[in-house]
Amino acid sequence: MTQESNLPSPDDIATFRENILRKLTYAIGKDAGHASQLDWYEAVALATRDRMIDRWMDRTRETYRQNGKRVYYLSLEFLIGRLLTDSLSNLGLLDIAREALAELGVDFDQIRLQEPDAALGNGGLGRLAACFMESMATLGIAAYGYGIRYDHGLFRQAIVDGWQHEQTETWLNFGNPWEFERAEVSYLIGFGGHVTALPRAGDEQALSQHFWHWAEGVRAIAYDTPTVGWRGSSVNTLRLWRARAEADFHLERFNAGDHIGAVAEEARAESISRVLYPADSTEAGQELRLRQEYFFVAASLQDLLRRHLDQHQSVLSLPEYNAIQLNDTHPAIAVAELMRLLVDVHDVPWEKAWALTVATLSYTNHTLLPEALETWPVGLMERLLPRHMQIIYLINAQHLDSLRARDINDARLLRSVSLIEEDHGRRVRMGNLAFLGSHCVNGVSALHTQLMRETVFTDLHRLYPQRISNKTNGITFRRWLYQANPSLTRLLVEHVGEELLDAPETRLRELEPFAEQAEFRRRFAEQRLANKELLAGLIQERVGIRVDPHALFDVHVKRIHEYKRQLLNLLHTVALYQAIRADPGGDWVPRVKIFAGKAAASYHTAKLIIKLTNDIARTINDDPTVRDLLKVVFLPNYNVSLAERIIPAADLSEQISTAGLEASGTSNMKFALNGALTIGTLDGANVEMSEQIGLEHMFIFGMTAQEVEARKQAGEYNAEATIYQSPRLNEVLMAIRNGAFSADDPGRYTALIDGITWHDTFMVCADFEAYWQAQREVEKRWRDPARWWRSAVLNTARTGWFSSDRTIREYAEEIWKVM
User: Fold this and answer.
1) pLDDT one-digit tens code per residue, 144-174
2) I want to staple 215 with a disulfide (CB 3.0 to 4.6 A). Which of 124, 149, 193, 709 is the partner?
3) Of the candidates 341, 371, 401, which is a domain's last residue?
4) Catalytic residue among 55, 82, 291, 559, which?
5) Any idea what the Cα angle at residue 782 is, between residues 776 and 788, rounded to 5°?
6) pLDDT digit string (tens) for 490-514?
7) Residue where one domain finishes, among candidates 317, 352, 371
8) Is 564 part of the annotated catalytic residue set?
């Protein structure tokens, strides 16, 4: 990636080599002759961390000196992945570390694999948070990320007989060399109990002063991970909270023989930070999820208020020096908690506290799916967070009263914008709470933002028409191009210049003329083939399937969900398989269908789709008549590291969600940046990608969001009629339904197929023929290498706008007001 003039100097290599050896000796306690690969990894990680510390301290001192505004990013997920290569690359030490280790007889590419993949997120939302943290550091924005230090991240996915099995994810088994435990940074978080009210001294007209008497206290302990920006420009802090019991171990109870009871309080408290996304299909699971959300929000707000008051005399200047971003509804309880702290703890009058809260908070919405806009039973909230429930009731009452004062009395409208849902059991609407308590609410793509205004927040938008704005998501090119695809990066730097690495948003466009040069297209295709060969080796190693790197790599990797329509892809796979079997001598384009993704533990249909994928894969891969013209692969345990291997090797990127349901997507951007062509609907950021890249360099198909909504509203959609009009689709559905891929259990997929036949909620059948035709266009272009690779180069060249630096700059200028 570096040019000849920027090769590391012998002195730099020698210095870093000695740093590694000192860490190996004095921090790990090992001799170089007896060190394991894990020992070497930890030594390199600690030596790298040392290089971050001075910049980290300098940045902190400078922020205090400037007395400027800080950004606080509250997110239940931070899908940070492996940090070694990321940190070395951003510090400009990657080549130095590689050479230093080589001189010690150690292979860097082997030891970096020793780092566990920190699965502290579920997908796009958590990965976005990680990208945003890196971009804030790169742009020099003083920021803290706040979340939970889960003992076990998202489950490790194992595939047993085609079924997903969830296993404990153990990223902390050997410690975490990147973090610093801050035992002195500790806050007590309360749950349960009751509230008493007393008149405020000397002010009979004021609201009563409320006192929350907890039934249980849990202590939050801070763990800090430095997050370094590109070229080491700045280092910010990711602060994650670990839960610990307030009381010490009950030795007397233990000695009295109550061995379980002695540790019960400890276990209950520590369960809060034990697992990311505990199943919430039970009341106990729902309570734990709510405890997690309040725990990290309460600790974070106490921490930032403490920091604010260390520098400033009053909380009344809070929005002047602090901007708090709520990443989805998970931290929405921050609205009520900030009000509680201001009113009950700092004695701020209610109206002033509300103005401070709204001016400080902003909220990012990530979904239009009603089930993903969290709601909590009122009974649970009253029991677990009684003071917050009082505050929410008061916010709601004053909100509705203010509307009536404006002569807004429509009962339907008032029910819609209320914080309390009354129709299906009384529940607190966290989306409405976040909306009302924030000065700015943003969507994450232009289409998603417009649909927010028209659907989930249509009535609130009518009342507050200036509150919703758009901030289309982005990705960090440092990880998803420079690190994930060094061979492509070298090619780009060779032709555009090293300045590309610092300004990809503008400089990538300079690649466009090279799309017309046959020699450049040839080299672009060569680096793709090399990445495909690496992925083919990984597939062989992990699932034992041999694939041809020269085949079209058709990739669909993301969380398994019905709206993301892995099922539509599977129907095409079966249709293609049947067509090849019917005409084995035909001129077929060899294709490898690659799937990966996790299903939520309690999401039965998604887990059934994984099983169907593996059943179809087994049948097709074992059929000699197909002759390697079609292979199907499901790679288990999809995570950031696996994505870094798959994305540079993809030829075709599947982004085929039901139009109107994908908020943005970021994998679509990562694939396009690496030169994959997109097949997809006009959904989420696909719309803006089509505008930037050009429709002629993508394969767009299917109904638009407006057409999907119109069909739903009209109630005229008949999936049966659609199937009847498509013999190809009917044959596929009957094959799956009748057990062609499940001979051991012929009825396994009956309910799944009947569901899309009778209801087709996600328009799988409705879009099937359009998808089939789009895939035919894919084959046609693949047969014309000049056209395919021209489009591939232009995908890379025109993706610069989708940088997370651009997204964060928009947040900073328009919402946080820090640039």
Assistant:
1) 999 999 999 889 999 999 999 999 988 999 9
2) 193
3) 371
4) 559
5) 120
6) 999 999 999 999 999 999 999 999 9
7) 371
8) yes
